[in-house]
Design a protein that fits this description.
single chain, 485 residues, alpha/beta, Rossmann fold, Alpha-Beta Plaits, ten-stranded mixed sheet, six-stranded parallel sheet, 17 helices
């Protein structure tokens, strides 16, 4: 297996070690690798702290010099922030980052509101601190809002947060979350300012400016940004388990208990076929030993009839299916089974439990944009729940097999997932390799605790075009969850 990328963390280059630059270093260096440029050695020396020596790279020099930018490692960073306190310097830094180094995520701070249009035309997002403060002061004057704040350095703080799809604030009126200790100062929807009245509702991808007491504002900002992980409630209320033998259920009960303890599931239902004498009592005994509170239901009729008719009517947030190997004709797409039919119709995730808990290491393969982004959101939710690290792997097939368009879409998804991880503040590693996707991912999976996949329900597998996700689900050496998209 040929590796093209090694483990990375998000990287940012900051030009200017003034008040803004120092505060950015303080905030970002916990999760990011930070490079900062300033011509003043005393400012750079003042950045030293007990925990930042290995995470902050300091370069003395002129931020508008290509030699200095190269020395600071601009080629390898994901973001560039110009905060030099001089618009001429900031604009030149942004111009070089965009035009000479091809950087897309470029930001600048300016004290001149009139400079915003110039930055926008150059493809640079511009931040004007005075705007947020003015919006909040106007809000207080017009609406008579309560408690006053001192300067940002003492009691108050201003933060801007992006609203991610998992935020519980989406479509909620602001009047439902009023507080005297913090306020919404502004809502930016693209290039439009939405006045934060009580009736205003926040939408996905909005940028919300919050102002409040600095002791509580970080937690409020996190709530607006992303909320709490809801798995599996974003798919359904209950975990549904299919089993045919008491010994099969006994083999997964310990991991099932772990999974339930780390989820928001409201119920567990175990569906079994009563062809084995005493199976219900055996399942009840196993549940008692492992502390699993579950309802059981004996299923009459064939597995296929049940799988394709009754499971689809259940309030299912996660379906746990038996770990059964492929039969020959099924593996090459010549035989359609109940599992295959259910795999294509159920909207909830599938899981096969193989005893690889706790989930400290999650492997997320990239397929293409829509599928991969849905799986990435689930991966990052699970990473937050389990405090896990995520590795994103992009397996590139030969160009003549995949085609230029598919390869470009796969690479774009790979980059988008990295950006999404940064927004979720999840530590990710990236691996790029070449070869057969099934073989490469199975080889990598043995070093992880959880394999997370996505699959296209509209895709019809065949002998020459097998369903990669279904193969990986059935053949993976570790617990595997696959999400329909």
């Amino acid at each position: 297996m040929k590796l093209a990328d090694s483990s990375i963390e998000p990287r940012v280059l900051i030009v200017g070690a003034g008040a803004t630059g120092r505060e950015l270093v303080r905030r970002l260096s916990k999760l990011w690798l930070v490079s900062i440029i300033d011509a003043d050695p005393e400012r750079l020396a003042g950045l030293d702290g007990p925990d930042d020596a290995d995470r902050v790279r300091k370069t003395r020099g002129d931020g508008t010099s290509r030699l200095v930018l190269d020395a600071a490692g601009i080629a390898s960073v994901d973001y560039v922030i110009a905060a030099a306190g001089d618009d001429a310097v900031n604009f030149e830094v942004c111009r070089l980052a965009r035009q000479d180094y091809g950087k897309v995520n470029v930001f600048a701070e300016t004290g001149d509101p009139g400079a915003r249009e110039r930055y926008r035309e150059a493809g640079v997002e511009c931040v004007v601190p005075a705007f947020a403060a003015a919006a909040e002061l106007e809000n207080r004057l017009v609406r008579g809002v309560g408690t006053s704040l001192s300067t940002a350095a003492t009691r108050g703080e201003v933060v801007e947060v992006p609203v991610l799809p998992s935020s519980p604030m989406i479509e909620r009126p602001l009047s439902s979350v009023r507080s005297r200790r913090w306020r919404v100062a502004a809502i930016y929807r693209g290039d439009t300012l939405v006045v934060p009245t009580g009736a205003a509702r926040i939408r996905q991808d909005d940028r919300v400016v919050l102002i409040g007491e600095k002791e509580i504002l970080p937690s409020i900002a996190e709530f607006f940004r992303i909320g709490e992980p809801e798995f599996p409630l974003n798919f359904g209320s209950n975990v549904l388990i299919l089993t045919e033998h008491a010994t099969d259920f006994d083999g997964i009960a310990g991991e099932l208990h772990y999974l339930l303890e780390h989820s928001r599931a409201r119920g567990v239902e175990i569906l079994f076929w009563p062809h084995e004498p005493g199976i219900q009592r055996a399942i009840d005994d196993v549940c008692g030993v492992h502390g699993i509170e579950a309802s059981t239901l004996a299923v009459l009729g064939s597995y296929g009839d049940f799988a394709t008719k009754r499971v689809l009517k259940k309030d299912c947030g996660l379906l746990v299916v038996p770990d059964q190997p492929f039969r020959l004709l099924e593996s090459i797409g010549l035989r359609r089974t109940a599992f295959s039919a259910l795999f294509r119709r159920l909207e909830a995730p599938f899981a096969i439990l193989r005893g690889s808990q706790p989930y400290g290491r999650i492997l997320l393969p990239v397929t293409h944009d829509n599928l991969s982004m849905a799986a990435a959101r689930l991966a990052f939710d699970l990473a937050r729940i389990h405090k896990a690290r995520v590795t994103v792997v992009n397996v590139r097939q030969p160009r003549f097999v995949a085609g230029e368009e598919a390869m470009a879409a796969q690479q774009a998804a790979f980059d988008q997932i990295t950006h999404l991880a940064q927004l979720h503040r999840i530590e990710v590693a990236r691996i790029q390799c070449e070869g057969n996707p099934i073989d490469q991912i199975l080889e990598l999976a043995s070093g992880y605790d959880l394999l997370l996949l996505s699959h296209n329900r509209d895709r019809e597998p065949s002998v020459f075009n097998p369903d990669v996700s279904q193969h990986l689900l059935r053949r993976s050496p570790v617990t595997t969850i696959t999400l329909p998209a």
